[in-house]
Amino acid sequence: MAQNPARRTALTDAAIDVLAREGARGLTFRAVDAQAGVPAGTASNYFANRDDLLNRVARHIHHRLTPDPAVLAELLRAPRDRALVTALMHDLLRRITAERAGYLAMLELRLEATRRPGVRDQLTGTIREQLEANIAYHLDEGFPGDRETVVLLYLAMTGLLVEHLTLPGVLGEDGLAALVDTVVERIVPLD
Amino acid sequence: MAQNPARRTALTDAAIDVLAREGARGLTFRAVDAQAGVPAGTASNYFANRDDLLNRVARHIHHRLTPDPAVLAELLRAPRDRALVTALMHDLLRRITAERAGYLAMLELRLEATRRPGVRDQLTGTIREQLEANIAYHLDEGFPGDRETVVLLYLAMTGLLVEHLTLPGVLGEDGLAALVDTVVERIVPLD
Fold first, then answer.
1. Could you say which of A147, A171, B38, B159 would form a disulfide bridge with A155 (CB–CB 3.0 to 4.6 Å)?
2. Contact A167 B104 (CB under 8 A)
3. Assigned fold of A62-187
4. How distant is the Cα of B129 from the closest Cα of chain A, in angstroms?
5. Which pLDDT band, with edges at 50, 70 and 90, does A2 fall under?
6. Tens digits of per-residue pLDDT, A72-90?
7. Closest CB from B114, B156, B179 relative to A166
8. Closest-CA residue to B29 (of B6, B1, B48, B5)
9. Once rounded to an integer, what is the mean pLDDT over residues B29-39?
10. pTM (predicted TM-score)
11. Cβ contact, residue pair A24, B23, below 8 Å
12. What CA–CA distances, in Å, run from A5 to A9, B55, B159?
């Protein structure tokens, strides 16, 4: 397989845009080539098959949705209290809103996972690891709350993000920041 | 347009199965006709266009996901306390798990709404009304908690259902009932 890393990243980014815009069924090697503006046949040199492409897309979205290390370091100078958890959730909302195509592509991958066991197994592994890493981090750093606190925060923020990114008028743009505050207040203990 | 109500319902049910199995992009009049086992051209006599079909599908899913009145009446003989909210959330999980295709089709419609303003406006109206009705019901019936309690419960259960129906291995089947208990315990006050 071809090995130019910049080209592979450009093709994976193009696949994310195709997924968000056309849905999982629109994701073909031909559509990825067209979106990336490369000659037809290029993507097939970089990915073994469609499942390989989908799995690389999942890992790349995970990478694109990771916090900016500089922003995170600045936030983490504060004490490990509820206010810091609130600041981290606002940063999450900002990042996902900025990476809208990536989050929508991840929802497309979730639906594709219901149809393709290979995608389901890979994606389950990726999301489980990420959730377990979040739980371990929360507890190790001494943030308030326990394992269930992190799981509930994950579920409520997932619900909020799915609603906000697919039907923004349901929760409304105006009250969204206040709703993030409420989510943290009601789920995370004060200390 | 043709007016046989049973035929229209059968076509709408077929559209839900096509959406869940093939994704939004696979939803064509031709695919609906094939899924329903009716002559090609039938669906086009029942729906003005594809957006009309999508909007009717959304309302029909909403209808299919509504609680069974007999089950609900039996549950509602209990006092309006946290235990009853827990029982209602377990009933919700049971219904959605039984109506898996309907819930997956609704996720497909949410993603289609990001691409089609007509679908977005209709679906936003439907989901907003439903959320406001849930809030009003909770407060009118004297269940514990306030408006934010219901919104948070809605967000956390949305996160749980999206996770459970698309990647069941992330939360696991075994701990799922206990997780519903935890969601209610942490979000809904005791009385």
1. B159
2. no
3. Tetracycline Repressor; domain 2 (1.10.357)
4. 9
5. confident
6. 999 999 999 999 999 999 9
7. B114
8. B48
9. 97
10. 0.95
11. yes
12. 6, 44, 35
Q: Which of B120, B161, B166 to mutate to test the interface with A (most CBs of A within 10 A)?
A: B166
Among the partner-chain residues A25, A128, A170, the one whose CB lies closest to the CB of B170 is A128
What residues of chain A lie within 8 A of the CB of B166, using their CB? Answer: 110-111, 113-114
Closest Cα partner for A168 from A95, A66, A62, A97?
A97
What pLDDT is attached to residue B155?
98
Which chain B residue has its CA at the smallest distance from A120's CA? B167
Rounded CA-CA distance A178/A3 in Å is: 46
A13 alpha carbon, distance to own chain's centre: 14
The predicted structure's pLDDT at residue A162: 98
Computed over every residue of chain A, the mean pLDDT equals 95
Cross-chain CB nearest to A148 (options B110, B127, B186): B186
Compute the C-alpha angle A130/A134/A139, nearest 5°: 150
Q: Which of B71, B172, B60 is nearest to B126 (CA)?
A: B60
CA atoms of B84 and B63, how far apart (whole Å): 23
For chain A, percent of residues with pLDDT exceeding 70 = 100
pLDDT value of position B140: 95
Q: Do A26 and B26 touch (CB under 8 A)?
A: no
Helices (H), ranges, chain B: 5-22, 29-36, 43-46, 50-64, 69-75, 82-98, 100-113, 117-140, 147-166, 168-171, 176-187
Q: Which chain B positions have a beta carbon within 8 Å of A157's beta carbon?
A: 155, 159
